[in-house]
Amino acid sequence: TAERELDLLRNAVAVEFPPVPSAVDYQQVAVVAFLGCFQKPNTFHPGHRGGTLSNVNHHSFHQRLLRQKHDCDSHLSKLGITSLSMAMKVNIRIVGRKSSEPWLEEGVEMYETRLKPSNLQVETTWHKDNSALIKGVDMDRSKNHCVVCLDPNGLQTTSEVFCDKLYEWLEDGGSRLSFIIGGAEGLPNELKYTSYSSSGKQSQPPPMISLSTLTFTHQFARLLLIEQIYRATEIRKGSGYHK
Question: For residues 160 and 63, what is the distance between their CA atoms, to the nearest angstrom?
């Protein structure tokens, strides 16, 4: 039960931690870790249950809290305790097959490895054609996973906005998110313009984003996407990776 999980959580953080650089104690930080760090910045205030933060300082507080969560997770790892947050999974669905260029696969594998400490797992599902891709999307949506398509005509954002959207999508999908990349011809029209379903059921098309107005191969778009996913996790941590 949730009460039992929280009791175990409080026991887990009773170990000796490094000094906390702010008023937030590690029990609060661990609760944030346990909940997947999805709390809204203006609904969590140290020492004031149910209180809110002002519009002026809630963002800086949230960033500080996230950095402490990262420190807490790192310390737990050194003690042999696994992260307390719910595992997040991103599935990249793409039409085609793995690239014959080894450097592309090596790049994707590098970012997959870098993402593990952030408790975010990224995997790729290859589809032989658009029909198989649409069936995969239907399956994701039937499980209430969030689905986002990549398309040149989609919404263009900064990395900071993409970071916010990424975690919103993960929250909406219950920690499950699928990005959809079309083949050499791009996304099928069924995903871009019309309500669709392989079974004939009416449904709104998924949201679309654009990584760039430039043209890339779909295999290279996959590498760009996973780098942005990694960058988003580093932005959330407040690390120096994103400058």
Answer: 13
